[in-house]
Design a protein that fits this description.
With 237 residues, the chain is α+β, with helices and mostly antiparallel strands. It is 26% helix and 27% strand. It is built from six helices and twelve strands. The strands form three sheets. It has a five-stranded antiparallel β-sheet. Helix 4 runs parallel beside helix 6.
Length: 237
């Protein structure tokens, strides 16, 4: 099974909705666009199906992406939702390597096939592919991670949260401009969203990569410092 979508918990959406409102941004949800109206190639109005009209200077449409796999298909390489590669970056033709957003690979961390769209992932895969071409074979097993900068907030995401069954929050959703959200599946951390929380991000990467079980009650207790948790994790690893 291939999982491509990276979602967030309602708690993170709630946090960012508050932040954007505090910054003067008005968010409209549950709206369907009927048509765009403009002149000379410039959109002037967005008309919704419920009759709402928004005057606009700029329209940004997010419709997702499709990987460029046509060349690989023409070359006869194995292609599914991306160009299939092994742990060495090799395609179905071992003379050819591939890396980046267009490739699909088996994640040892999540035990499933994934296609990850992120700069760190592409960089790490490129290094593995280059090593393979040079005859110095190394395996690719990096934990996916992502980031987003909005206002004075840096969101750092560790891992993939698909299939989580519990969410735990360190911080206050209603106040402040920092917190960490931890995604658990079957009592193990599988991903984390950390906003202005670099220490929580580093701890999460370590915990997810190592498979160590950490009690979420302790993790969300801000009376316990992250340094203490990191030190305890280092001793246990």
């Amino acid at each position: 099974m291939l999982l491509l979508v990276l979602g967030t918990a309602p708690e993170l959406s709630e946090f960012y909705t508050r932040i954007h409102y505090e910054e003067g941004v008005c968010i409209h949800v549950h709206k369907s666009v009927e048509k765009l109206v403009g002149t000379n190639g410039a959109v002037k109005q967005v008309i919704c199906q419920d009759g709402t009209i928004f005057d606009t200077d700029l329209v940004i449409v997010g419709i997702g992406v499709l990987p460029n796999i046509e060349l690989a298909q023409q070359a006869g390489l194995k292609v599914e939702q991306g160009i299939c590669i092994d742990a060495y970056g090799q395609t179905s033709d071992q003379r050819i390597v591939a890396a980046g957003d267009c490739v699909q690979y088996f994640s040892q961390h999540y035990q499933r096939s994934v296609r990850v769209e992120s700069i760190p992932n592409a960089n790490d895969q490129a290094k593995i592919a280059a090593s393979t071409l040079c005859g110095d074979t190394k395996t690719f097993d990096s934990l996916p991670w992502f980031w987003s900068d909005q206002y004075d907030l840096k969101l750092q995401i560790a891992g993939l949260n698909n299939g989580y069954d519990q969410v735990y929050v360190r911080g206050n959703l209603a106040l402040g401009r920092s917190l960490a959200i931890f995604y658990y599946k079957q009592n193990r951390m599988i991903a984390a969203d950390c906003i202005n929380r670099p220490q929580e991000f580093m701890l999460s990467k370590r915990v997810i990569s190592s498979g160590i079980i950490i009690d979420p009650v302790i993790l969300t207790d801000e009376n316990i410092s992250i340094n203490d948790l990191i030190n305890a994790n280092n001793k246990g690893s």
